[in-house]
Design brief:
heterodimer, A: alpha/beta, Rossmann fold, six-stranded mixed sheet, globular, B: about 290 residues, mainly alpha, 11 helices, about 0% strand, elongated
């Protein structure tokens, strides 16, 4: 018998009435042994996180969990809340997506990691500190002893995630469940965390990995379960899944992963999007020039002597790790930050030196699509009012708004039924579509996209990327595309700029830069990119 | 097949147990109490069996009986009728004082939050000074300046509650001002005044309105306290705090004279607070 046996697991969330009940998981079965890794992959709403939570008895008060989950022969679903306390941390370690939220902001890292050991009285008091240092060192935190006194917010994303993993490991559990452990991290750090988890697996832990991204789990998982709408649609070894996917949905998920190979192709249908619009044939008219721009916050230069030119009709990718200054650069281009020195020139006129009053009538030229559209919309506004605000700002006659609204919604793949919805009633992908529609309402020449798809799961990301490329072709938009994801940048960009610590370290056509990177940092980024098994090339 | 239907039945039952969305008993009770008080305030003649001012010296200090369910006071007036008529004073002062304080708080908080710099600094230091005095002391000082009476204690209570609201508004403005949607309006080229009225003001005031329902209870408490101290309306007005003070002298001979106004005041204050908390929890959950 395997260490973890899940049989016929069903989870139903009970709402106010029967109509609001949600069947999150239906008849899920799998087993997991020590030293093995099973990955559950699916888009949001597929039931993967509900499964993970149910396995640690945290499905929630309104969840009805049925079936059987046995760990080392012990039935978990029958445990009382009290008995669960003895299991969580001790037998099962749980690592969540966002370490900043999951770690207590008022407690030092050392105490956080020690908690499970103290709670289960695993060691005499005097030995706890040594064990905590050992655990932190084990998860690759250098200089662990000096970091015991640090609070969560004082650590970088990667270090926080390591601390969280250390605390999950502190009870020496036989099973480790990691729910999207790398989603909040940039690629370089993600690669490190995946390596760390792999080490845990080698050391004999059973690892259950939850992710929306097939590419992330490809190297780590022994078996992959693809979930959709609460059911497992396919399962198998990574080799089987990647080289011979049986289910249409698995194929769609695989095709949705953007990379250099998918350039110019639709990620949803896999077909070419018609005329690819070869940029080299278009006259190279610079529309946006950034000249020797410096922007410092306190003592740190977020953007340090950056110069670049964006040509009409092209897509410029800006890639870099978090903290590399790419978002500040995007804000400088938007005229939302003023440079300390240097200038941003828009269509030949000095844009950064303008007074806000003078800039306002020109703002429609450059529009922004940000990472988190939820916060970019007034929560009280309906989609209709969100679009109207843009139409009003652009100075369109009120009489024509209704027609324009519909045209805008259609152009981003939505319909008039969405007009009455509020942002929170939309899915992540729909929200991003509305954000794009609002930007388009301004009839911009340049669209600045700051991590527009990094909050979306792979299949939604594919739809939004397809939409952006389609709009670019149809409207001749110039796009500045900021992302930490190399695959995405390779997919959308004509030219790419690699940023590190506020500076541009490499620049050029995508094929050249990413095929033969000259700078060390670009190489490191490339090496960190999660790789699918080789056969995908075929 | 039989097996399956049994299982389904079991699941249905468990689902029923988990189902949420009922209004808790305490909140329902508080709602009923407030509804009753509102009726008393709007149409006291409808509820009260007697004239609250009509003395009947032959029936003075009678204990509760079927004819006078709360008994009579030292002048033989029906206490139940007086308590019912008193609701209008408390609710009027509570609502108006809170509305006044919220309005002033919005103006001050919004100016400070939006203007920033010196204006913010100056306004907030004034608010800090006001906050340094306990609310009741503050309102007493204002009454000492304005004189006694219903309108004056209303103003006094409002002034004493302004600082709290102003601070909340300012803090909320700070959050909203740096929000993504205010930035988005800027990217669209919307002028700042329009953004202020369209985004900042509504998103600041929304949470405040909810919070102010909690403030009504304490405003009622303060009005009763000021009246009890003799700073409110004068006898023979049937104001709860005043009746409480009058009843104090008769506690040995007729406990009912002071107890019932106190019970009504307490019930109203607790009920508004319970309702306010419930509304706040509801809106928090939705956000």
């Amino acid at each position: 018998m395997a260490l973890l046996e899940v049989r016929d697991l069903s989870i139903r969330f009970v709402g106010h009435s029967h109509d609001e009940d949600v069947q999150a998981v239906r008849g899920l079965s799998f087993s997991l042994d020590a030293g093995e890794c099973v990955a559950i992959v699916g888009e949001s709403g597929s039931g993967k996180s509900a499964t993970a939570r149910a396995l640690v008895g945290l499905a929630g008060d309104n969840a009805l969990v049925e079936g059987s989950v046995s760990l080392g022969g012990r039935e978990l679903l029958k445990l009382s809340q009290r008995d669960w306390l003895g299991v969580r941390g001790r037998n099962i370690g749980f690592v969540l997506q966002d370490a900043l939220v999951s770690l207590d902001p008022l407690r030092k890292i050392g105490r956080e990691v020690a908690e499970t050991i103290e709670r289960h009285r695993l060691l005499p008091r005097g030995e706890i500190k040594g064990r905590v240092v050992e655990l932190l060192t084990q998860v690759g935190m250098s200089d662990a002893e000096s970091r015991l006194g640090a609070y969560a917010h004082q650590l970088s994303g990667g270090l926080r995630q390591r601390a969280l993993i250390a605390s999950a490991l502190s009870g020496d559990p036989s099973l480790l469940i990691a729910d999207e452990p790398t989603t909040a991290l940039d690629m370089v750090v993600q690669a490190q965390i995946l390596k760390l988890l792999n080490g845990m697996k080698q050391a004999g832990k059973a690892l259950l990995l939850i992710s929306h991204d097939l590419a992330v789990v490809a190297e780590l998982a022994d078996r992959i379960i693809v979930m959709r709408d609460g059911e497992a649609v396919e399962s198998g070894t990574p080799m089987q899944i990647f080289s011979d996917p049986q289910h249409d949905y698995t194929r769609a998920l695989l095709a949705a992963i953007p990379s250099a190979r998918t350039r110019g192709l639709s990620l949803v249908t896999g077909s070419g999007g018609g005329e690819s619009g070869d940029v080299s044939l278009v006259p190279r008219v610079p529309v946006l020039e950034v000249g020797e721009v410096v922007r410092t916050f306190g003592k740190r230069a977020a953007v340090d002597d950056v110069s670049l030119t964006v040509v009409a009709g092209e897509t410029l990718g800006i890639v870099g790790a978090s903290g590399s200054g790419k978002t500040t650069l995007a804000r400088l281009i938007m005229g939302l930050e003023a440079p300390d020195s240097g200038s941003v020139t828009l269509k030949g006129a000095d844009w950064s030196a303008l007074h806000e009053r003078q800039r306002r009538p020109l703002r429609h030229l450059v529009q922004l699509v940000s990472q988190d559209p939820m916060s970019a919309f007034d929560p009280r506004f309906t989609v209709e009012r969100i679009l109207d605000e843009a139409l009003e700002a652009r100075g369109f006659e009120r009489a024509g708004w209704a027609e324009r609204r519909l045209a805008l919604l259609r152009s981003v793949g939505l319909s008039e039924m969405h007009l009455g919805r509020r942002p929170r009633q939309l899915s992540g992908g729909q929200r991003q579509r509305v954000a794009i529609a609002r930007a388009l309402a301004m009839e911009p020449e340049i669209l600045v996209c700051d991590e527009p798809v990094s909050a979306l799961d792979v299949s939604t990301q594919a739809q939004v990327l397809d939409l952006l490329l389609d709009l670019k072709r149809r409207l001749g938009l110039t796009i500045v595309f900021v992302s930490h994801d190399l695959g995405v940048v390779q997919h959308v960009s004509d030219r790419v700029v690699v940023m590190n610590e506020g500076r541009i370290v490499e620049e050029g056509a995508v094929e050249e830069v990413l095929a033969s990177p000259r700078h060390e940092y670009t190489r490191a980024l490339l090496a960190a990119q999660p790789r699918l098994p080789e056969r995908m090339a075929g | 097949m039989t097996n399956l239907s049994i299982e389904l039945g079991g699941a249905g039952k468990a689902a029923g147990r988990l189902r949420r969305g009922r209004v808790p008993f305490g909140v329902a009770l508080a709602g009923l109490i407030i509804a009753f008080m509102a009726v008393c305030a709007v149409a006291p003649g409808f509820v009260a069996p007697y004239d609250p001012y009509a003395p009947d010296l032959l029936a003075s200090l009678k204990p509760p009986s079927p004819a006078h369910i709360f008994g009579t006071d030292q002048l033989g007036r029906d206490i139940f009728s007086r308590v019912v008529h008193g609701a209008s004073y408390s609710l009027y002062i509570g609502l108006c004082a809170t509305a006044l304080a919220v309005a002033a708080g919005i103006v001050i908080g919004l100016s400070a939050g939006v203007a920033g710099g010196f204006i913010d600094l100056a306004l907030m230091r004034v608010i800090d000074v006001l906050l340094a005095f306990p609310g009741l002391l503050m309102s007493m000082a204002v009454v000492a300046f304005l004189g006694t009476g219903v309108t004056n204690i209303l103003i006094a209570i409002a002034i004493a509650s302004i600082p709290g609201y102003a601070r909340i508004v300012r803090a909320q403005v700070m959050v909203v001002r740096t929000s993504g949607y205010v930035e988005a309006a800027r990217v669209l080229g919307q002028p700042p005044m329009r953004t202020l009225l369209r985004h900042i003001l509504p998103n600041t005031v929304g949470p405040l309105i909810v919070l102010s329902t909690l403030g009504i209870g304490s405003a009622i408490l303060q009005s009763a306290a000021l009246s009890y101290l003799g700073l409110g309306p004068k006898a023979p007005t049937p104001e709860w705090g005043l009746m409480l003070a009058e009843g104090q002298g008769y506690l040995r001979r007729g406990w009912w004279v002071g107890i019932f106004p106190g019970v009504f005041a307490t019930a109203t204050i607790i009920s508004t607070t319970v309702l306010g908390r419930y509304i706040k929890a509801l809106t928090d959950g939705r956000a």
